[in-house]
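If you are new to this repository, start here. Below is one unmodified record pulled from the training split, so you can see the exact layout before writing a loader.
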Amino acid sequence: MASFANLAGILLALSSALVWGGSDFIGGLATRLNARPLARNQPGSNLFQVMALSAFSGVLILIGCVMLWREPLPSLPSVMWAVMAGVSGAIGIAALYLALSIGQAASVAPTAAVIGTILPVLYSIFTEGPPGLVRLAGFGVALGGIWMVSKPPTQGEQVNRRDFLLACMAGIFFGGFFILIAQVKAGFVFIPLLASRSASFTLAILLMLSRPAPLPSRSTSLLALLGGALDAGGNVFYLLAAHLVRLDVAVVISSLYPAGTVLLARLLQKEKASSWQWVGVLLCLAAIILISL
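And here is the target side for that same chain:
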């Protein structure tokens, strides 16, 4: 039974990575459609409007899931953990958007991804003890793969101190989301995630109002809504995985989503990936094998 639960948890975490990879792919399309020249001292554009739309569609999807599955109300502590996770995730996304709008994606994106993975792994090792050597090696291979596959093919200038701090901030709050949402009591999924996404939506609205900008185009808005729905689905798979396997296993495998984004961009848009990104994809596949042993 334990081995079956472990396998199910790994498959759920892998599903989370695939769905999150699709969400990021769609989010990238929305960002490019919504792109406009920005002065370095006037970041933001209407990225926060896109963020709010994405959170809104996730709220609608989770409301539908709650009504369909008729999940009972969780305890207040579970709801509070979920709300804190939603706020943490929203702050992380806002910091990442801000860093990408004024900095270099070549350094910002992988920095945020790796930090967001390392923190929950350290937390899990501290609370649950160290994993086996093979699995620990898989974590190391995964971190290398995440870094390589997150770097865009075109390299820009070196990241400055402000961009680096924003990337670190994004990673810290992403890691906070992984840790906090995993504290939800096992057996409860949709209502806690609805509370989490509602908190994210509220914060996104506040950020949007703080930086007034025109609403995104219709195509951008539809992509943002679809990306938000997929992101909510990825959250469901991740939370289910975190209830079945160690937190570090669920986090590391779920965090391999950049590989899915690269593969989708290659298959659907014929975008060229750098040799480093392909090496990163292979490392991510190797990491899945090592962690599953």
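Two things worth knowing about this chain: Residues 2-34+46-292 form one domain. The radius of gyration is 18 Å.
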